[in-house]
Write a structure and sequence with these properties.
The structure holds two protein chains of two kinds. Chain A is built from 14 helices and twelve strands. By secondary structure, chain A is of the alpha+beta class. Chain A has two domains: 3-52 and 246-386, no CATH class; 63-233, no CATH class. Chain A has a six-stranded mixed barrel, surrounded by four helices. A two-stranded antiparallel ribbon of chain A has the order 11-12. In chain A, strand 6 (159-163) and strand 7 (170-178) form a beta hairpin. The radius of gyration of chain A is 31 Å and the shape is elongated. The two termini of chain A are 31 Å apart. Chain B has one domain: Rossmann fold (3-Layer(aba) Sandwich), CATH 3.40.50.300. In chain B, helix 6 links the parallel strand 7 and strand 8. In chain B, helix 3 packs across helix 4, helix 3 packs parallel to helix 5 (140-151) and helix 4 (117-124) crosses helix 5. Classes of the chains: A alpha+beta, B alpha/beta. The interface between A and B is medium-sized, with 25 and 31 residues.
C-alpha cells in the first residue's frame, strides 16, 4: 500500500465522528439536488406532460388564420395518417355550450371527438376515473371532468341538459368522468362524440386535428413534413403550444437549480472545513512527515484522498437514499387537488444522466473543497511546522 | 562523510538581518558520535537543520556522502532525508493515529520497502512489547524510543537528534543516551544537539558553537 493511502485511511479512521458528520453533510448535499430534480421533473410532467399527452397532442393542425375550421379536414386527416412515424391523428370540433344539472347551470367548452381515432392520438381514453370511455356509436353521451362533476354535483349515469345558444335543450347521459390533470379538460370542457357535437353546433369541419408521434422529440421535423404534405401553414408543435407554461417551468427549474447550488456549496464548505481543520491541527505532524522524507506531493495526496474518500462515500450514500426516496414517491405519488375534484398526480422521476451529473458535480466540489487545504499542507514549511504548537 | 564549508545562514526579521551561522567549516567522519553544544542562540539547531536538509543555507557548501546538497531540488532533498537521514526531535514527534509499530514502519512504507524490520527495531530500542500501543499509551521515554526506532527504519547514514532528552526525566534521558552509545558502537553515525554538558560528554567529539561560529 502507498504511504499516502495508508496515512489517509489511518487519519480518517482515527477521526470517525468528524468523518461521519461530513459524510452525512455530503449525503444530504446529494439527496437534495436528486430529490428536487426528480420532483421538478414530476411537476413538469404533471403540468406539461399530461397536458401534451391528453390535450395538445405532439402536433396540432389548426385552422388557417381568419378561419374557424380546417377546410377539407377529412382529406387532411387521411394525408396525415399516411405519414410514416405518426401513431395517430384525430379531429376535434369544439364550441361553447350551457350545461345544466338538477341544481347547477354553467357555460362550458363542448368538444367533439372520434373515440377510436382519439385513442391513438392522445391518452384521453386512459384518464377515465369512473364510468366508461366513449364509443364511436354513442349519441347523447358525455365525458366530463372530475371538477365539472363536482361543480354540477353529478356523476356517472346522471342526466344533464345541454343548450346551444337558443336551441332546445337536449338530454345527455354522463357516461364517464375523466381525471386528466389538464385544467381545460377537467374543469372547462365536456366531451361528446364528434358527430353529436357537429350536429348541435352546426359546424361542417373540424376545428383541430391532434397528432401523436412515435417520438415526440421529432415534433419539429414532422411539423415541416405535415406543412409540406397538407399545404396548411398552421401546424403547431407541443413545445409551441405549451410555451405559455414556460414561465412556470422556468420557476421550477430555477428553484431546482438554487437548491442544487446550495447543496453543492454545503458539500464544498463541509469538505473544505474538515480538511482545513485537520491540516491546521496536524501542522506539526505534517512537518514531521516532511522531515522524515515525505514529499509535498505525498502530503497533498493524503488530504486529497481524504476529501475524495469522504466525498465518494457521501455521494454513494446520497445517491442510494435519493433514489430510494424517489422510488418510494413513485410508488406513492403526490396527489394534489388544485380545484374542485380535479386531481394532479405528481410522480417524481430522474434520469440516470441527471444522477451521474449531480454525483460528478458534488465529487468535483469535494476535490475543489479539499484541494486548498491540501495545498496548504503540502507547502508547509518544515521548521515552522515542527516548532508549531 | 559530512563536509561543511563556509556555511552561513541569515534570518530576516523584517528588514533586520539576524545571522544564525557565520561561516562554519566542519568535517564529520563516518561512525562518529558528535555532540553539537553551545548556549541558546548559538546556532546549534540551525546547523543540525542544515545538515538534515530541513533548511537551506544562505551561503556555503554541504556535502554528505559525496553529494553536494545544493544541487538537489525539493523532491530530491525529501528523498535524501528519507533514505540517508534519520531524525529524532526534542518533542515526541510520533503520529498519534498510528500504533508504535506503524510509526516505525512508516518510513519503510514511504520508501516502498517491506516493513518486516519494524518489529526488530522496536526490540532493539527495548520496547518490543509496546508495538501495538498508540503513542498516547506510552511514556515520554518510550515515545522517544519509538522515534529512534523510526529514525533507524531505512538504515540511515546519519542519525540526527535535536535535544532528544530535553523533555525526559533523568533516568529516561540516560537510557536514551545509552541507546545512542550502543547504536554508535554498532557503527551508526550520530549528530546530537544538546545543551547539557553531561550528555554531551558521552559523545566521541563535542563541537562547541557560539554566536554562529565553531569554537573548537
Amino acid at each position: 500500500m502507498k504511504a499516502w493511502m495508508f496515512l489517509a485511511i489511518k487519519d480518517l479512521s482515527k477521526r470517525k465522528r468528524e468523518t461521519l458528520m461530513v459524510i452525512l453533510a455530503i449525503t444530504i448535499g446529494v439527496v437534495g439536488p436528486l430529490f428536487t430534480t426528480a420532483l421538478n421533473n414530476g411537476m413538469q410532467n404533471a403540468f406539461v406532460g399530461t397536458t401534451v399527452d391528453v390535450e395538445y397532442g405532439h402536433l396540432q393542425i389548426q385552422p388557417n388564420t381568419g378561419d374557424t375550421t380546417i377546410h377539407n379536414s377529412e382529406s387532411v386527416l387521411s394525408k396525415v395518417m399516411g405519414i410514416k412515424g405518426i401513431v395517430g391523428a384525430a379531429p376535434r370540433i369544439s364550441s361553447g355550450i350551457n350545461i345544466e344539472s338538477k341544481t347547477e347551470k354553467i357555460g362550458i367548452g363542448f368538444i367533439g371527438i372520434k373515440p377510436s381515432l382519439e385513442e391513438k392520438a392522445s391518452t384521453l381514453a386512459e384518464t377515465i376515473d369512473r364510468g366508461e370511455y366513449l364509443d364511436d356509436k354513442d349519441g347523447n353521451d358525455l365525458l366530463i371532468g372530475t371538477a365539472v362533476a363536482e361543480i354540477l354535483k353529478v356523476d356517472v349515469g346522471d342526466t344533464v341538459l345541454l343548450q346551444y345558444r337558443d336551441r332546445p335543450k337536449e338530454k345527455f347521459r354522463i357516461k364517464g368522468v375523466i381525471s386528466t390533470g389538464s385544467f381545460m379538460l377537467d374543469r372547462y370542457a365536456i366531451i361528446a362524440n364528434y358527430d353529436t357535437v357537429k350536429r348541435i353546433v352546426d359546424e361542417d369541419e373540424a376545428n383541430l386535428i391532434v397528432i401523436r408521434l412515435e417520438n415526440h422529440e421529432e415534433s419539429k421535423r414532422f411539423k415541416t413534413l405535415i406543412q409540406k404534405e397538407t399545404t396548411l401553414p398552421n401546424v403547431k408543435t407541443w413545445q409551441e403550444l405549451s410555451a405559455g407554461m414556460a414561465s412556470m417551468i422556468e420557476t421550477f427549474n430555477s428553484i431546482s437549480l438554487q437548491t442544487s447550488a446550495i447543496s453543492v456549496f454545503v458539500a464544498a464548505i463541509a469538505i473544505s472545513l474538515i480538511i482545513y481543520t485537520t491540516v491546521k491541527n496536524k501542522t506539526r505532524e505534517i512537518g514531521v512527515l516532511k522531515a522524515i522524507g515525505g514529499r509535498g506531493s505525498m502530503i497533498l495526496k493524503i488530504y486529497l484522498a481524504e476529501a475524495l474518500f469522504i466525498g465518494m462515500i457521501g455521494i454513494t450514500l446520497g445517491t442510494f437514499i435519493g433514489l430510494f426516496l424517489v422510488n418510494g414517491m413513485q410508488q406513492n405519488p403526490i396527489v394534489t387537488e388544485p380545484e374542485y375534484g380535479m386531481k394532479l398526480i405528481i410522480t417524481p422521476w430522474i434520469s440516470m444522466n441527471s444522477v451521474v451529473a449531480t454525483d460528478l458535480a458534488i465529487l468535483l466540489t469535494c476535490i475543489i473543497g479539499g484541494i486548498y487545504p491540501a495545498i496548504i499542507a503540502a507547502k508547509t514549511n518544515i521548521i515552522k511546522a515542527i516548532w508549531s504548537g | 562523510m559530512i563536509e561543511l564549508e563556509g556555511l552561513r545562514k541569515i534570518y530576516y526579521m523584517g528588514k533586520i538581518e539576524v545571522p544564525a551561522l557565520r561561516g562554519i567549516d566542519l568535517e564529520i567522519d563516518r561512525g562518529e558520535f558528535v555532540a553539537l553544544m553551545g548556549p541558546s542562540g548559538s546556532g546549534k539547531s540551525t546547523l543540525l537543520n542544515m545538515i538534515g536538509l530541513l533548511d537551506t543555507p544562505t551561503a556555503g557548501k554541504i556535502v554528505i556522502d559525496g553529494v553536494d546538497i545544493s544541487s538537489l531540488n525539493e523532491d530530491e532533498r525529501a528523498d535524501f532525508r528519507l533514505r540517508k537521514l534519520g531524525f529524532v526531535f526534542q518533542f515526541f514527534s510520533l503520529l498519534m493515529e498510528l500504533k508504535a509499530i506503524e510509526n516505525v514502519a512508516l518510513p519503510m512504507i514511504m520508501n516502498e520497502k517491506g516493513y518486516d524490520r519494524a518489529e526488530s527495531l522496536l526490540e532493539l530500542v527495548g520496547i518490543g512489547d509496546r508495538a501495538l500501543h498508540y503513542p498516547s499509551e506510552l511514556s515520554g521515554g518510550q515515545q522517544q524510543r519509538v522515534a529512534i526506532a523510526r529514525a533507524l527504519a531505512n538504515e540511515p547514514a546519519i542519525l540526527l537528534a535535536d535535544e532528544p532528552t530535553a523533555n525526559l526525566d533523568t533516568a529516561s534521558a540516560n537510557q536514551i543516551l545509552e541507546l545512542f552509545r550502543e547504536l554508535n558502537n554498532r557503527g551508526q553515525t550520530i549528530i546530537m544537539v544538546t545543551h547539557e554538558h553531561d550528555l554531551g560528554e558521552k559523545a566521541d567529539r563535542i563541537v562547541k558553537l557560539k554566536d554562529g561560529m565553531v569554537m573548537q
